[in-house]
């Protein structure tokens, strides 16, 4: 399996790449080959005085490559120009990546209302599962908030087809996951369930599948706004990563703001693993 790790060479990206436990977690789920990608913005030109961005970025990627190779992975590096989320998505599709990883400091509640960060744009457009790896927000040399990426998972489901598709990722995560909490949020109009359906029973069925892999499982049904309740569940459970599916039935999803999955990516305190429709799991 291949993974793309996107880096802007910031302290947040460096924390993701240089954390040995983080790399070990990727190996535990079957990642063998890592592609490091850094994007030079289109408006930055090589001829600008005092700015040899490409050379500096290649030197930085060479340092990162050594760390990753020493952890036992095959590594390729890519220094490209363009719009970051578009180039990252394009490379992931071209190489057939099973996962894209991007580090993020997260934002304040006010900043969360502004769509523009690479992580959030990737959440809107990615065609492969996306891991948003959260680091400390204020530190000059930040640490990862959770270095054991998949050890303790929170899975949020509305029982839609795409949520079920996201659940299938546990077949890959099982070698790295020890505990999981499965959460469904009931709303007045719940399109994912027929009127006579029992959400507790549906969650128990999913739990049985995970328990067969020796994963310790809890289930919970909440009521209210889906994004708010998933964030409350995250605060209560303190998972390594929150796993969620993104509906994205058409290109219109790239133009519409405020989906539950985007809100979770923007607001979560910890890591988020987002699985888009049709992604190879």
From TrEMBL:
Coiled-coil residue windows: none
Domain UspA: 4-132, 150-276
InterPro entries attached to this UniProt entry: Rossmann-like_a/b/a_fold, Universal_stress_UspA, UspA
Annotated Pfam families: Usp
Highest taxon of the lineage: Archaea
Protein family: Belongs to the universal stress protein A family.
Name of this protein: Universal stress protein UspA-like protein
Species of provenance: Halovivax ruber (strain DSM 18193 / JCM 13892 / XH-70)
Source organism phylogeny: Archaea, Methanobacteriati, Methanobacteriota, Stenosarchaea group, Halobacteria
